Amino acid sequence: MRWQVVAISYALVACGPSATPKAPSRAPGLPEDAVFEVMEATGKTFVVLGPASTAPTSRAAPVVIGHGLAIEIADEEPLADPLSFTLVGRRGACTSSAASMVKISGGGAWLEAVRLDGCRGDPAEERLALAGSVADARFLEPEETLTADGEPIPTSGFYEGSLDGKLMERKATFTGLELVFEQRYREPHEGAIATRVRTAEKVLSAMYAHVDGAVRAGPRWLFLVTTDTGQRGVMELMADLLVPRLGAAPRSAPLSDDVGAERPPAESPKLTSKPAAELSGTVSAARAPAGSAKPRLFLVESLRESAGKLAVSLADDKGERHELELSWPEGLVAPFAKGQRVRLSSSAPNRGRASVVCEAENGELLLAIDAPKLDVWKVTRGPNYSRESKPGTKREFYAVNFENGDVKVESRAQWVTMETTMGTYYVYGDAAKAARAPLEYAIVRAR
After folding, report:
1. Cα four-point dihedral sign 260, 264, 270, 274
2. pLDDT for 430-441, tens place per residue?
């Protein structure tokens, strides 16, 4: 989550003359349960929908916001059908309409956003935007208690005495929710502290993150968290599972509440992909969810990797189960995690391969396999070259070119790292010499 981009309304320098208004655009379809971040800039309030699918067709003068920072707001277009959003923060909630769309850049990738007609707020306040008008949305502060060897001590203010060697237990609860967010550690403590989410009977989940507050909207519970690396995120309680909805997903922690387990285990090589040059084999899809030609939301229920294959179990919004089966090089980390919601489209397998496009809920591309068309990305046939197909035998093949913005790389049946404004990706491409031979390629978000 880009909370650092939110607080950006200092002394402003006005933009140049605005462009001639464009014809109204159709409002984007937004899921009813969508959650978005809020940006305050140039005296206006924006709801950020996610990465822009295309670059702007017109440019505006950058707006200087102080401390060497500047943003650019371009391509403002009126919406044919205005949208409605409810903004929630510590200072309250309000609902506003949005009648225009814009593209925003702070020097990195372009973001697609809508400009609100109202709900102006303090740039320093963290607020979430919910789709539609949510009458009962409100922010809740955690009710915290802290004990040392069972003795209560203040959670704020001055404390006289030494805590060295004492077992610390911090518990946070929220009015109306029968869950406890618990931390247990012994002073002095170094490193991250695990937060375990528990009922009276059992631990439901554990993560290396601190819960800073909650938003309740009807039956929904959304939690603002800060991970052990300082990144901000939002998680939603769905049944007995906390699911990442926006921003950074915390690392999982052991469910055991033994005090010795609070320190994170040493980073495993599996948490980070091997360098691209060390990967062998491509990514292809032998099986994908049926009836997903148009993007659909799925919950990643499990991932199983073995013998060069990755099996992903998915559940749709009706609770029905689906399978995604991929060939998968050893050392390449999956770009999605258990409990994450992803937007996926696919085609039926052709020649044993299905095309797949998988995005995060905010529109970030996670995985693309043999898709005929991609937003922002351009995948084309490159120059022909020869390589040994069998010992002593050479055959002609085509390389594959990958383009994203100003970045362009070429793959000749090998993995290549591609640094884009949207993040780091590993790409692989190959095409047979035969006429009209299809491109076989993969784009994987690096972890």
Report:
1. negative
2. 988 765 667 899
